[in-house]
Amino acid sequence: RCVLKELESLGKALYGAKFIAQSFQVRNCSHRKDPVSGSACLLSMIEEGNPHHFFIATQDQDLANKVKRKAGVPLLFIIQNTMVLDKPSPKSLACVQKLQTNELVPEHQKQSIVQLKEKEGLARQEGEKRRKRKRAGGPNPLSCLKKKKKKTQEGQEPSAEKKKRRKRKRNR
Q1: Given 3-state DSSP classes, what are the helix, strand and coil percentages for the chain, each rounded to the nearest 5?
Q2: DSSP annotation of 128
Q3: Where are the alpha helices (DSSP H) in the chain?
C-alpha cells in the first residue's frame, strides 16, 4: 500500500509504473495510517528473517544494497526485457552454512536431547547396530546361455533333414 501511495504522489510521470503495481496482489503493511516511502516499507516487511518469503524486485541500488545485508531475501532486477535473479548475498550464504552445520541448536540442548532419549529408551546403544546381510544373487541373466529345447518325437526330424541338404553351386 505504501508503494502505491508513493507512486500516486509522484504524479502522472509514473502512471505506467502505478498501473503495473496495481495489477499485483497488494500486501497489507503496518503503516496503514501513516504511509512511509516504498523502500522503507519493503524493508520493514522483510524484517526478522523474511517470514513470508518475499522476493524484492527493484532497480534502486540503495535498496538493493540494504536488501543484500539481510539473510534469505532473493533480489530481482530487470535488465532490458529480462528478469534476472541476483546471486545469493554473502549474508544468505553464511546463514545457509550455519543451518547445515546445525549451529542453530546449542550444544547443551543436543546433550539434553540425548539424555531424554536414553531415559525413554529410544537411544540406540553401540552393541545394537545391525548390519544388513547381503544375499547371494544368481548369475547375470545376460551372460547365461539359453536352455536348449528338447526334441519331440518325429515332429523335428524333417526339419533336421532339411538342414543337412546342401544346395548345388551353379557353374557358369
Answers
A1: 40, 5, 50
A2: G
A3: 2-9, 15-23, 38-45, 61-68, 90-100, 107-120, 157-164
- Pairwise CA distance, residues 84 & 79, whole Å: 7
Tell me the average pLDDT across 76-87. 88
Place of cell 529345447: 149
C-beta of residue 38 within 8 angstroms of C-beta of residue 2: yes
Nearest alpha carbon to residue 21 among 6, 34, 31, 11: 6
Of the candidates 47, 48, 42, 10, which has an alpha carbon nearest to the alpha carbon of residue 29?
42
**How does pLDDT run across 120-148, given as a tens digit for each residue?**
877 665 556 677 888 888 888 888 888 88
Cell output for 42: 519493503
Helix (H, G, I), strand (E, B) or coil at 89: coil
What ranges in 10-89 are assigned the alpha helix state H? 15-23, 38-45, 61-68
* Residues 31/41, Cβ–Cβ less than 8 Å: yes
Torsion region of 134: left, alpha or beta (phi above 0 gives left; psi -120 to 50 gives alpha): beta
The rounded distance, in Å, linking the Cα atoms of 68 and 88 is 8
pTM higher than 0.85: no
Radius of gyration of the chain (CA): 37
